[in-house]
Amino acid sequence: MGLGTNNTTITTNDKWIPEQWEDDAIATYKTKTVMANLVKRMNHKGRKGDTFHIPSPGRGEASAKVANTQVTLVADTATEVLVYVDKWYEYSKLYEDMADIQSLNGMKSFYTEDAGYALAKRIDRELHKLGAGFNAGTVATATALYEKAVIGSDGSTNFSGSANTNTGNGAAITDAAIRRMIQTLEDSDVNSMELSLVLPPVESNVLRGISRFTEQAFVGEAGGNNVIRTGRLGNLYGVELFVSSNCPWIHVNSQTGTQSVTFSSTAPTGASYSDDFAIAVDWNTSSPTDTKYRAGMMFHKDSLVLVEQQGIRTQKQYKQEYLGYLVTTDCIFGTKELRDYGGLAIVVPA
What we know:
By secondary structure, this protein is of the alpha+beta class. The protein is built from eight helices and 16 strands. The strands form four sheets. Strands 5, 6, 7, 8, 9, 10, 13 and 16 form an eight-stranded mixed β-sheet that branches. Strands 1-14-15-4 form a four-stranded mixed β-sheet. It has a two-stranded antiparallel sheet with strand order 2-3.
């Protein structure tokens, strides 16, 4: 027998069925990502495989044409860059029925947005770590981490953890250093009008203290607002400035002069502390002190790549054995340096 009419169904009740999980996570992810919006981004969603091959052709030279002779052919055997899509991160919450029933509606909204932020932060950090490899930098040993980076005071002197009796030589950024880094990249045939400078918050504070960066004549009007009134740090010599709280922390061991790189100000501990590069350093022997620095970057968009195979995805499943909903947000991606000469890491005090 039929159930009659005017029943409550998923069609009539669709406005009561929440579908904001994935949308909220994606929206937060997009607004919280800094680095991902500044690098070459390749969408490989739905494609099979765990390794992507990106052609890397060499630059050619123009030849003078001689009358009545054959043109000079440009010979180039293009190499390739392999990007391994090997990073899979997830953010999961289990909402038990009682907690779900008794909690404010804002609880789910907060954690959904937090999922998007957490994944955006992880992608940013993986891209930040690539800065250690600029200018043939190596991440194989703790004595070499970021030692191809430049220091903030002049933009040319390499960072060294063993300098100044194992306390390091990182220094606050200056106007001269910014100009020198731009020149270094221009000398490598990098278009300086397409550069980005990403710094930790401590250095944005330093820049606000340099008068020429807040002079109206230098940065001009922005969006109709007077720059002096707003204190906005805009385009510096054609380079866009961004502030990221995800800039890596470099911990210099006072006993060994070696570095441990993390994404936290907390001092490393233990006889074999493994940092974010999976490099072990002894932070026990002789009770070493920790001198902290942070690493920023000036780079061209095409110097780094982010390959996204699975974008932000949110799934929900009712788990009867727990009497609650399991909500998981995840993404699959890979990162790689494309042009070693297309960027510079810069080390500044924390």
